[in-house]
């Protein structure tokens, strides 16, 4: 048995044969072999197999293997071979990447009988000699840390410093000599001749973070700390071009977990002035100018085109997550415009969220508009989509204290004609179109209102809710006050043909507030019957009226004793007579006593009608007439032409569909 020990006593070396201009890619190998008793195997014929593995001798990648047969040892047991000159078993010796800066290991196998029953002898790491094979592809060896391949040059060092002898990142640039003539530590100028089918970037940075980084990972992080009175900008991007779209700064983030931000701006610590996390400015665009444009395309979860957060500590200042201002003489100026396209989950064009104030006011979204002659919209929400739900404006409020949460609140004042806090308009051809829809569900509370209206006006007509048109209620209607109506009916599916007809009966009307009780009874052998009424009858009724009808025989019936103690007595002139009775009482409960119906009233607005058309009068003569809320002509035209979609559609299509 062979002792697993090779005396690597001599050397590896590059073999140079002859005087050819080419360099043979072979490595000389010399060793002495002994048997298990440590005796030299002199003048013997053996077989040798070599394997070359990368990174690790055991689990590394096998990049090359070969065999040498009929190898003869000399009188000292020594033999000489050329690695790369045997019979190739796998791989290609000439293509081994000695310039990969990864360790390579030589594994040796020997069969002292000259066959193929090889015994593993051990592994040795290649050191400097075989890497000289790469010298034939290197044009310069002035700096071994920089490698040039063709027209590309790179450094294998993990950290490189420029102006910094102690770099802490891959490229660490330090320049403390900036002045009026030298304004940048790093300047990149690029010119593109691309036809438009591909992206061209002066700077492209990609971060591949596959581990959990609790503090976040940023492809580009820029920080500016200045004390002068000018501007301090973490990142400043400027795009000057004549193409369809030019971007000063664009960020793209693709993540599989947590939050991914294409571009994040953060500003803090200004003792005076304004902190802008991200500021965008655009002007002089013929087709359109967008200061800040946010776009997101996603197939799942939440997607935000622009997400702004402001956290402030000064008690008398404003914190604005996203602030938009538009000034111009064009057809439309939009301070902040949100636009989103998605196929699943939740898609939000613009979302505002405010939290944290314990004494002031938290406003998720605040819209202010003034100065226009035709129309001012503090907040305008529009949606055109084919999803299950399309919401122009969605308000949500979640509170943790015993306070009031308003998902959406509107406030209007100072108009001498019409003030409307919230207006809902629905213009659609779908199955269901809602101007305003309210929905409430319970999570352990007490009262839940889908829509709640309240009014506390003084003078004139005031209503918590005013409906012009039909109102349909699928549940119960609870009214604590009076009901004033032109008429009333019950309406049910017709008992004889419920699928095709209704059965409609009119209410019984009266100038009095009346309760009606009725039933049938039968007098005894003496012609008497005592009728018991509900226990509350005496307290709920007064001034009772009676009706009696005998059934089956000609007989006389009278009220022998009026209602007293919640009973009354009927007498007939014959025994055992069936009598149908009805008692009508005027309501005497406390609410009725304070709210008696007045049959005839003077109108507050003289010359008006509840139904002017019945008297040949125009609709303007309606008692509560007001001009209907209409969409402005400009907005109607925008909707017809889909101007919002056209303005943002090109940006969305070219930014959302192209991938890097």
Please, could you describe this protein's structure?
The protein has 660 residues and is mostly beta strands. Among the domains are: 126 residues, Sandwich (Immunoglobulin-like); 81 residues, Immunoglobulin-like, CATH 2.60.40. Helix content is 5%, strand content 21%. It contains four helices and 22 strands. The protein has a five-stranded antiparallel sheet, with no helix packed on it. Strands 1-2-5 form a three-stranded antiparallel sheet, with no helix packed on it. The chain has a three-stranded antiparallel sheet with strand order 17-22-19. The two termini are 61 Å apart. The relative contact order is 0.05. The N terminus and C terminus are likely disordered.
Mean pLDDT value:
74
Low-confidence stretches: 1-23, 639-660
Task: Tell me the strand order in the biggest sheet.
Answer: 6-4-3-7-8
Instruction: Give the CATH level 1 class of the domain at 12-137.
Output: Mainly Beta
Helix content: under 10%
Examine the coordinates and then state which fold CATH places here, giving the name of the CATH topology of the domain at 12-137. Answer: Immunoglobulin-like
Per DSSP, what share of the residues sits in E-state strands of 2 or more residues?
A: 15-25%
- How do the SSEs run, as a string of H and E? EEEEEEEEEEEEEEEEEEHEEEEHHH
């Amino acid at each position: 048995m062979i002792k697993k020990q090779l005396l690597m006593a001599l050397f590896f070396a590059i073999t140079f044969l002859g005087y050819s201009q080419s360099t043979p890619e072979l490595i000389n190998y010399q060793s002495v072999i002994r048997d298990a008793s440590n005796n030299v195997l002199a003048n013997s014929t053996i077989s040798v197999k070599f394997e070359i593995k990368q990174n690790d001798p055991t689990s590394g990648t096998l990049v090359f293997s070969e065999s040498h047969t009929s190898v003869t040892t000399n009188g000292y047991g020594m033999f000489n071979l050329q690695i790369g000159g045997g019979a190739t078993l796998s791989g290609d010796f000439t293509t081994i990447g000695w310039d990969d800066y990864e360790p390579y290991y030589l594994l040796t196998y020997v069969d002292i009988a000259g066959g193929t029953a090889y015994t593993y002898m051990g592994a040795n790491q290649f050191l400097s000699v075989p890497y000289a094979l790469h010298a034939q592809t290197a044009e310069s060896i002035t700096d071994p840390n920089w490698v040039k391949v063709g027209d590309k040059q790179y450094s294998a060092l993990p950290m490189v410093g420029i102006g910094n002898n102690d770099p802490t990142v891959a490229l660490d640039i330090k320049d403390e000599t900036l002045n009026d003539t030298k304004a940048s530590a790093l300047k990149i100028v690029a010119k593109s001749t691309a036809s438009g089918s591909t992206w061209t970037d002066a700077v492209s940075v990609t971060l591949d973070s596959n581990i959990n980084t609790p503090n976040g990972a940023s492809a580009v992080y820029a920080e500016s700390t200045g004390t002068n009175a000018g501007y301090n900008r973490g990142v400043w991007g400027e795009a000057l071009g004549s193409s369809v779209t030019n971007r000063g700064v664009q960020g793209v983030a693709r993540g599989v977990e947590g939050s991914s931000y294409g571009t994040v701006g953060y500003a803090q610590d200004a003792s005076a002035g304004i902190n802008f996390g991200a500021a965008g400015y655009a002007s002089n665009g013929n087709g359109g100018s967008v200061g800040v444009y946010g776009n997101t395309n996603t197939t799942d979860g939440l997607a935000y085109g622009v997400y702004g957060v402001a956290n402030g500590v000064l008690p008398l200042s404003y914190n604005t997550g996203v602030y938009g201002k538009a000034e111009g003489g064009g057809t439309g100026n939009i301070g902040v415009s949100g636009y989103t396209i998605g196929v699943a989950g939740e898609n939000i064009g613009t979302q505002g969220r405010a939290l944290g104030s314990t004494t002031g006011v938290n406003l998720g979204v605040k819209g202010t508009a003034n100065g226009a002659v035709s129309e001012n919209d503090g907040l305008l929400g529009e949606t055109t989509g084919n999803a299950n739900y399309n919401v122009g404006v969605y308000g949500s409020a979640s509170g943790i204290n015993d306070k009031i949460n308003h998902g959406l609140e509107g406030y209007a004042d100072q108009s001498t004609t019409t003030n409307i806090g919230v207006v809902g308009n629905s213009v659609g051809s779908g199955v269901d179109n809602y101007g305003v829809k309210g929905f409430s569900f319970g999570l352990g509370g007490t009262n839940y209102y889908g829509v709640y209206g309240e009014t506390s006006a003084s003078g004139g007509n005031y209503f918590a809710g005013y409906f012009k048109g039909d109102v349909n209620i699928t549940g119960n209607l609870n009214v604590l006050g009076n009901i004033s109506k032109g008429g009333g009916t019950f309406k049910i599916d017709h008992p004889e043909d419920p699928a095709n007809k209704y059965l409609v009966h009119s209410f019984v009307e009266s100038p009095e507030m009346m309760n009606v009780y009725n039933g049938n009874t039968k007098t005894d052998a003496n012609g008497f019957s005592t009728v018991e009424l509900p226990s509350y009858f005496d307290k709920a009724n007064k001034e009772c009226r009676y009706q009696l009808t005998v059934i089956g025989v000609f007989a006389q019936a009278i009220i022998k004793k009026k209602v007293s103690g919640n009973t009354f007595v009927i007498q007939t002139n014959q025994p055992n007579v069936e009598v149908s009775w009805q008692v009508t009482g005027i309501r005497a409960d406390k609410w009725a006593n304070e709210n008696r119906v007045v049959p005839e009233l003077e109108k507050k607005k003289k010359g008006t009608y509840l139904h002017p058309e019945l008297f040949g009068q125009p609709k303007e003569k309606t008692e509560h007439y007001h001009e209907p809320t209409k969409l402005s002509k400009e907005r109607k035209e925008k909707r017809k032409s889909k101007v919002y979609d056209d303005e943002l559609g090109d940006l969305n299509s070219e930014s959302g569909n192209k991938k890097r």
